[in-house]
């Protein structure tokens, strides 16, 4: 394998890490504020894929524009789900069995709705840019991957600005760092939780919509990406927003380079193995290593 091949794999890993970061941020936001592991994340990613599919097939809306439209739509859906179901869960500083069962059940409901509406056939979205490539020096890059990466990066930049420049972002960071202190200083936890859940579902819908331009999908589409999201947030440190990007890059590098040595069908086993290693060796995630290095000895 020459240096050009290595460079191509590195660039492919970076492009993949962008979409992996987007699909994992929603779980991190919800867990950070509410201490809920959103097992329904996979179901909303699946709905995001079918959302752009229907817009493209019925109305001719470009899938990238459809992905942008998915964000506000799924934000409202997320707040509605929180108001109808999630707000009744007991408040806790650790994930609880009722929250896991509720959201796992919601995932199964969404999955079966998908089977009832769209069947079990694989669907794909083909546009003029699906097979288009562009050459940059010795590199051959997929146009659709570049566009998806650009949308993912812009959405993450806007999220970072929101987390640092708005009252809602400051409330999210405060509750993530210390929920008890956040309540003491007067943060409206119910309102912040509702908006955070909506934001998390919005990122799930956006990620599913973007992934629909890269992969074929069916009602079980979100399951392998849910596992990847678990790996990423564990690698990142569960509540670290910066750690999510590092975790996504690590997983993307491992998956991309492992294809050279291991059949692609074993990628899920690689993700499982990486999750086990992260839990045993780095239970605090990559963010804990960075914090440890930053402390004075």
TrEMBL record:
Membrane disposition: Multi-pass membrane protein
Keyword annotations: Amino-acid transport, Cell membrane, Membrane, Transmembrane, Transmembrane helix, Transport
Protein family membership: Belongs to the binding-protein-dependent transport system permease family. LivHM subfamily.
Protein name: Inner-membrane translocator
GO cellular component, one term: plasma membrane
Source organism superkingdom: Bacteria
Signal peptide: none
Ranges annotated as spanning the membrane: 7-30, 36-53, 65-85, 97-118, 139-163, 195-217, 229-254, 266-290
Organism (species): Thermaerobacter marianensis (strain ATCC 700841 / DSM 12885 / JCM 10246 / 7p75a)
One of the protein's GO biological processes: amino acid transport
Keyword Transmembrane helix: yes
Compartments where located: Cell membrane
GO terms of molecular function: transmembrane transporter activity
